[in-house]
Design brief:
Elements: H1 3-13, H2 23-36, E1 45-47, E2 56-60, E3 66-70, E4 75-78, E5 84-87, E6 97-102, E7 105-115, E8 122-127, E9 137-140, E10 145-146, E11 150-153, H3 156-169, E12 175-180, H4 189-201, E13 205-209, E14 212-213, E15 225-229, H5 236-248, E16 254-257, H6 265-270, E17 276-281, E18 283-285, E19 292-295, H7 296-312
Parallel strand pairs: 3-12, 3-13, 13-17, 14-18, 15-16
Antiparallel strand pairs: 1-2, 2-12, 4-5, 4-9, 6-7, 6-9, 7-8, 10-11, 11-19, 15-17, 18-19
Helix pairs in contact: 1-3, 3-7
Length: about 325
Protein backbone atom coordinates (compact mmCIF):
# COMPACT_ATOMS: atom_id res chain seq x y z
CA UNK A 1 0.00 0.00 0.00
CA UNK A 2 1.13 3.54 -0.69
CA UNK A 3 2.06 5.97 2.06
CA UNK A 4 -0.83 8.17 0.93
CA UNK A 5 -3.21 5.43 2.07
CA UNK A 6 -1.97 5.79 5.63
CA UNK A 7 -2.41 9.53 5.33
CA UNK A 8 -6.03 8.86 4.43
CA UNK A 9 -6.36 6.50 7.38
CA UNK A 10 -4.86 9.12 9.70
CA UNK A 11 -7.33 11.67 8.39
CA UNK A 12 -10.29 9.36 8.98
CA UNK A 13 -9.17 8.42 12.50
CA UNK A 14 -9.33 12.11 13.41
CA UNK A 15 -12.96 12.46 12.30
CA UNK A 16 -15.46 12.44 15.16
CA UNK A 17 -18.45 10.36 14.04
CA UNK A 18 -19.88 8.31 16.91
CA UNK A 19 -23.00 6.17 16.48
CA UNK A 20 -25.99 8.39 15.76
CA UNK A 21 -23.89 11.23 14.36
CA UNK A 22 -22.11 9.62 11.42
CA UNK A 23 -22.59 12.63 9.11
CA UNK A 24 -18.92 13.73 9.16
CA UNK A 25 -17.81 10.30 7.94
CA UNK A 26 -20.66 10.14 5.43
CA UNK A 27 -19.48 13.42 3.95
CA UNK A 28 -15.87 12.23 3.94
CA UNK A 29 -16.71 9.03 2.05
CA UNK A 30 -18.89 10.84 -0.49
CA UNK A 31 -16.15 13.41 -1.13
CA UNK A 32 -13.53 10.66 -1.41
CA UNK A 33 -15.60 8.76 -3.98
CA UNK A 34 -16.26 11.94 -5.95
CA UNK A 35 -12.56 12.73 -6.05
CA UNK A 36 -11.17 9.25 -6.78
CA UNK A 37 -13.84 7.24 -8.65
CA UNK A 38 -12.74 8.65 -12.00
CA UNK A 39 -9.54 6.62 -11.60
CA UNK A 40 -11.24 3.34 -10.61
CA UNK A 41 -11.76 0.50 -13.10
CA UNK A 42 -15.54 0.92 -12.83
CA UNK A 43 -17.25 4.12 -11.80
CA UNK A 44 -19.93 3.08 -9.29
CA UNK A 45 -23.52 4.14 -8.91
CA UNK A 46 -23.63 6.07 -5.63
CA UNK A 47 -26.82 5.65 -3.59
CA UNK A 48 -27.31 7.91 -0.58
CA UNK A 49 -29.74 10.39 0.90
CA UNK A 50 -32.49 10.44 3.46
CA UNK A 51 -33.91 7.10 2.30
CA UNK A 52 -30.71 5.53 3.67
CA UNK A 53 -30.25 8.01 6.56
CA UNK A 54 -26.44 8.45 6.73
CA UNK A 55 -25.49 5.16 5.06
CA UNK A 56 -24.05 4.86 1.55
CA UNK A 57 -24.22 2.12 -1.09
CA UNK A 58 -21.84 1.87 -4.06
CA UNK A 59 -22.90 -0.41 -6.92
CA UNK A 60 -20.26 -1.69 -9.37
CA UNK A 61 -21.29 -3.51 -12.57
CA UNK A 62 -23.44 -6.56 -11.86
CA UNK A 63 -22.97 -7.17 -8.13
CA UNK A 64 -23.06 -10.64 -6.58
CA UNK A 65 -21.47 -9.92 -3.20
CA UNK A 66 -21.54 -6.90 -0.86
CA UNK A 67 -18.84 -5.53 1.43
CA UNK A 68 -20.14 -3.97 4.66
CA UNK A 69 -17.98 -1.40 6.49
CA UNK A 70 -19.48 0.57 9.37
CA UNK A 71 -18.56 4.26 9.55
CA UNK A 72 -19.53 4.97 13.16
CA UNK A 73 -17.37 4.76 16.25
CA UNK A 74 -17.65 4.42 20.01
CA UNK A 75 -17.69 7.51 22.22
CA UNK A 76 -19.61 9.27 24.98
CA UNK A 77 -22.66 11.51 25.38
CA UNK A 78 -22.70 14.37 27.87
CA UNK A 79 -25.59 13.86 30.32
CA UNK A 80 -26.04 16.46 33.09
CA UNK A 81 -23.22 18.66 34.34
CA UNK A 82 -20.04 16.55 33.95
CA UNK A 83 -21.76 13.16 33.68
CA UNK A 84 -21.08 10.92 30.67
CA UNK A 85 -22.98 8.01 29.11
CA UNK A 86 -21.18 5.49 26.90
CA UNK A 87 -21.82 5.21 23.16
CA UNK A 88 -21.08 1.57 22.41
CA UNK A 89 -18.42 -0.08 24.53
CA UNK A 90 -15.40 2.18 24.97
CA UNK A 91 -12.75 1.18 27.48
CA UNK A 92 -12.72 3.77 30.27
CA UNK A 93 -9.73 4.94 32.29
CA UNK A 94 -9.20 8.13 34.23
CA UNK A 95 -6.98 10.43 32.23
CA UNK A 96 -8.02 9.35 28.73
CA UNK A 97 -8.14 12.46 26.55
CA UNK A 98 -11.46 13.31 24.88
CA UNK A 99 -12.56 15.97 22.41
CA UNK A 100 -15.95 17.53 21.77
CA UNK A 101 -17.67 20.65 20.50
CA UNK A 102 -20.95 22.42 21.23
CA UNK A 103 -22.39 25.82 20.29
CA UNK A 104 -19.76 27.52 22.46
CA UNK A 105 -16.86 25.87 20.66
CA UNK A 106 -14.49 22.92 20.83
CA UNK A 107 -12.83 21.70 24.00
CA UNK A 108 -10.27 19.06 25.01
CA UNK A 109 -11.18 17.31 28.25
CA UNK A 110 -10.11 14.31 30.33
CA UNK A 111 -12.15 11.29 31.31
CA UNK A 112 -12.63 10.97 35.05
CA UNK A 113 -14.06 7.94 36.87
CA UNK A 114 -15.61 8.65 40.28
CA UNK A 115 -16.27 5.87 42.80
CA UNK A 116 -18.94 6.31 45.46
CA UNK A 117 -17.25 5.47 48.76
CA UNK A 118 -20.47 4.18 50.30
CA UNK A 119 -21.78 1.99 47.48
CA UNK A 120 -18.62 1.31 45.51
CA UNK A 121 -20.47 2.23 42.32
CA UNK A 122 -18.47 4.03 39.65
CA UNK A 123 -19.70 6.81 37.36
CA UNK A 124 -18.21 8.44 34.28
CA UNK A 125 -17.40 12.14 34.22
CA UNK A 126 -15.13 14.57 32.42
CA UNK A 127 -12.87 17.31 33.71
CA UNK A 128 -12.93 20.56 31.74
CA UNK A 129 -12.74 24.34 31.91
CA UNK A 130 -16.48 24.60 31.34
CA UNK A 131 -19.55 22.38 31.16
CA UNK A 132 -20.58 21.06 27.74
CA UNK A 133 -24.15 21.44 26.59
CA UNK A 134 -26.34 18.39 27.21
CA UNK A 135 -26.20 15.82 24.44
CA UNK A 136 -22.74 16.82 23.21
CA UNK A 137 -20.79 13.84 21.87
CA UNK A 138 -17.24 13.27 23.06
CA UNK A 139 -14.74 11.02 21.31
CA UNK A 140 -11.17 9.91 21.98
CA UNK A 141 -8.56 12.50 21.08
CA UNK A 142 -6.64 11.21 18.04
CA UNK A 143 -2.97 10.56 18.79
CA UNK A 144 -1.39 9.08 15.65
CA UNK A 145 1.72 6.90 15.80
CA UNK A 146 3.25 5.17 12.79
CA UNK A 147 6.49 3.31 12.17
CA UNK A 148 7.76 0.80 9.63
CA UNK A 149 5.49 -1.97 10.88
CA UNK A 150 2.54 -0.51 12.79
CA UNK A 151 -0.10 2.18 12.74
CA UNK A 152 -1.72 3.19 16.02
CA UNK A 153 -4.56 5.58 16.86
CA UNK A 154 -8.12 5.64 18.12
CA UNK A 155 -10.83 4.34 15.82
CA UNK A 156 -8.88 1.88 13.68
CA UNK A 157 -12.20 0.13 14.36
CA UNK A 158 -13.58 0.86 11.91
CA UNK A 159 -11.79 3.51 9.87
CA UNK A 160 -9.48 0.76 8.70
CA UNK A 161 -12.44 -1.30 7.50
CA UNK A 162 -13.60 1.75 5.53
CA UNK A 163 -10.14 2.23 4.04
CA UNK A 164 -10.08 -1.42 3.00
CA UNK A 165 -13.41 -1.01 1.19
CA UNK A 166 -12.19 2.13 -0.59
CA UNK A 167 -8.99 0.37 -1.70
CA UNK A 168 -10.96 -2.62 -3.02
CA UNK A 169 -13.18 -0.15 -4.92
CA UNK A 170 -10.20 0.82 -7.09
CA UNK A 171 -10.21 -2.52 -8.95
CA UNK A 172 -13.76 -3.77 -8.32
CA UNK A 173 -15.74 -4.63 -11.47
CA UNK A 174 -18.82 -6.34 -10.05
CA UNK A 175 -19.94 -5.88 -6.47
CA UNK A 176 -21.49 -3.62 -3.87
CA UNK A 177 -19.87 -1.67 -1.06
CA UNK A 178 -22.04 -0.61 1.88
CA UNK A 179 -21.03 2.00 4.44
CA UNK A 180 -23.34 1.36 7.39
CA UNK A 181 -24.21 3.18 10.60
CA UNK A 182 -24.97 2.42 14.27
CA UNK A 183 -22.87 -0.76 14.39
CA UNK A 184 -21.19 0.15 17.68
CA UNK A 185 -24.43 0.91 19.50
CA UNK A 186 -26.96 -1.76 18.66
CA UNK A 187 -26.84 -1.85 14.88
CA UNK A 188 -30.01 -1.89 12.82
CA UNK A 189 -29.11 -0.05 9.63
CA UNK A 190 -27.85 -3.18 7.89
CA UNK A 191 -31.31 -4.73 7.91
CA UNK A 192 -32.83 -2.13 5.61
CA UNK A 193 -29.61 -1.93 3.55
CA UNK A 194 -29.71 -5.70 3.09
CA UNK A 195 -33.35 -5.53 2.06
CA UNK A 196 -32.54 -2.82 -0.51
CA UNK A 197 -29.71 -4.89 -2.03
CA UNK A 198 -31.78 -8.08 -2.09
CA UNK A 199 -34.81 -6.48 -3.69
CA UNK A 200 -32.96 -4.36 -6.23
CA UNK A 201 -29.87 -6.43 -7.06
CA UNK A 202 -30.61 -9.99 -5.83
CA UNK A 203 -27.42 -10.02 -3.76
CA UNK A 204 -27.28 -12.66 -1.01
CA UNK A 205 -23.65 -12.72 0.17
CA UNK A 206 -21.81 -10.31 2.46
CA UNK A 207 -18.25 -9.76 3.67
CA UNK A 208 -17.85 -7.76 6.87
CA UNK A 209 -14.92 -5.35 6.55
CA UNK A 210 -14.24 -4.73 10.21
CA UNK A 211 -11.43 -5.09 12.75
CA UNK A 212 -10.91 -8.07 15.05
CA UNK A 213 -8.60 -8.41 18.05
CA UNK A 214 -5.24 -9.93 18.88
CA UNK A 215 -5.72 -12.97 21.12
CA UNK A 216 -4.00 -16.16 22.21
CA UNK A 217 -4.71 -17.57 18.76
CA UNK A 218 -4.47 -14.45 16.58
CA UNK A 219 -1.15 -12.69 16.14
CA UNK A 220 0.37 -9.67 14.40
CA UNK A 221 1.78 -10.01 10.86
CA UNK A 222 0.10 -13.37 10.19
CA UNK A 223 -2.55 -11.95 7.87
CA UNK A 224 -6.14 -10.84 8.29
CA UNK A 225 -8.61 -12.89 10.27
CA UNK A 226 -11.19 -15.11 8.59
CA UNK A 227 -13.64 -15.52 11.44
CA UNK A 228 -15.22 -18.96 11.67
CA UNK A 229 -17.52 -17.71 14.43
CA UNK A 230 -17.97 -15.10 17.15
CA UNK A 231 -21.23 -14.68 19.10
CA UNK A 232 -22.94 -15.88 15.90
CA UNK A 233 -22.09 -18.76 13.59
CA UNK A 234 -21.95 -18.26 9.79
CA UNK A 235 -22.81 -21.07 7.38
CA UNK A 236 -19.86 -23.46 7.26
CA UNK A 237 -20.05 -24.15 3.52
CA UNK A 238 -19.61 -20.42 2.81
CA UNK A 239 -16.62 -20.18 5.14
CA UNK A 240 -15.07 -23.27 3.55
CA UNK A 241 -15.44 -21.67 0.12
CA UNK A 242 -13.72 -18.48 1.31
CA UNK A 243 -10.84 -20.49 2.78
CA UNK A 244 -10.48 -22.47 -0.46
CA UNK A 245 -10.32 -19.26 -2.52
CA UNK A 246 -7.73 -17.78 -0.14
CA UNK A 247 -5.61 -20.93 -0.43
CA UNK A 248 -5.95 -21.01 -4.20
CA UNK A 249 -4.56 -17.48 -4.50
CA UNK A 250 -1.96 -17.99 -1.73
CA UNK A 251 -3.43 -15.21 0.41
CA UNK A 252 -2.12 -14.84 3.93
CA UNK A 253 -4.81 -15.28 6.61
CA UNK A 254 -5.54 -16.54 10.12
CA UNK A 255 -8.57 -18.50 11.26
CA UNK A 256 -10.41 -17.06 14.24
CA UNK A 257 -12.77 -18.89 16.60
CA UNK A 258 -14.40 -16.83 19.34
CA UNK A 259 -17.45 -17.21 21.56
CA UNK A 260 -18.28 -13.53 21.88
CA UNK A 261 -18.19 -10.30 19.90
CA UNK A 262 -20.27 -9.21 16.95
CA UNK A 263 -20.50 -6.94 13.94
CA UNK A 264 -22.84 -5.94 11.13
CA UNK A 265 -23.14 -9.67 10.51
CA UNK A 266 -25.68 -9.98 13.30
CA UNK A 267 -28.13 -7.85 11.32
CA UNK A 268 -27.54 -9.88 8.17
CA UNK A 269 -28.28 -13.10 10.01
CA UNK A 270 -31.41 -11.71 11.70
CA UNK A 271 -32.82 -9.89 8.66
CA UNK A 272 -35.62 -10.78 6.24
CA UNK A 273 -33.63 -12.71 3.62
CA UNK A 274 -31.21 -15.63 3.82
CA UNK A 275 -27.68 -14.32 3.36
CA UNK A 276 -24.27 -15.92 3.62
CA UNK A 277 -21.73 -13.80 5.48
CA UNK A 278 -18.22 -13.83 6.85
CA UNK A 279 -16.27 -11.39 9.04
CA UNK A 280 -12.82 -10.77 7.54
CA UNK A 281 -10.42 -8.18 8.90
CA UNK A 282 -7.04 -7.29 10.36
CA UNK A 283 -6.65 -7.77 14.12
CA UNK A 284 -5.77 -5.01 16.53
CA UNK A 285 -4.34 -4.60 20.01
CA UNK A 286 -5.87 -2.29 22.65
CA UNK A 287 -9.43 -2.70 21.38
CA UNK A 288 -11.83 0.24 21.96
CA UNK A 289 -9.14 2.43 23.52
CA UNK A 290 -7.38 5.53 22.17
CA UNK A 291 -4.42 3.31 21.27
CA UNK A 292 -5.71 0.71 18.79
CA UNK A 293 -2.70 -0.83 17.05
CA UNK A 294 -2.56 -2.78 13.74
CA UNK A 295 0.32 -4.30 11.76
CA UNK A 296 0.76 -3.03 8.20
CA UNK A 297 1.22 -6.55 6.83
CA UNK A 298 -2.25 -7.44 8.08
CA UNK A 299 -3.71 -4.32 6.44
CA UNK A 300 -2.07 -5.13 3.11
CA UNK A 301 -3.19 -8.75 3.38
CA UNK A 302 -6.75 -7.66 4.12
CA UNK A 303 -6.96 -5.60 0.93
CA UNK A 304 -5.48 -8.40 -1.20
CA UNK A 305 -7.83 -11.03 0.23
CA UNK A 306 -10.89 -8.86 -0.36
CA UNK A 307 -9.82 -8.14 -3.94
CA UNK A 308 -9.55 -11.87 -4.65
CA UNK A 309 -12.82 -12.77 -2.91
CA UNK A 310 -14.84 -10.08 -4.68
CA UNK A 311 -13.70 -11.48 -8.02
CA UNK A 312 -14.60 -15.08 -7.24
CA UNK A 313 -17.59 -15.12 -4.90
Amino acid sequence: MLSTDYKTLKQMCAIAAPSGNEVPMTQFVLNYVKQHAKNWKVKPKVIFGNQLHDSIILIFGKPRTAIFAHIDSIGFTVRYDTQLVKIGGPVTKTGFELVGADSKGAQDVKLHIIEDKKTGLKSLHYKARRIFERGTELTFKPIWNEDENFVQCCYMDNRLGVLNALKVAETLKDGAIVFSTYEEHGGGSVQFLQRYLQQNYKINKGLISDISWISDGVHFAKGPVISMRDALIPRRSFINNIIAIANKHKCMYQLEVEGSGGSDAKDLQMADYLWDWCFIGAAEENVHTPFEKVHKKDIEGMVKLYQVLMKEL
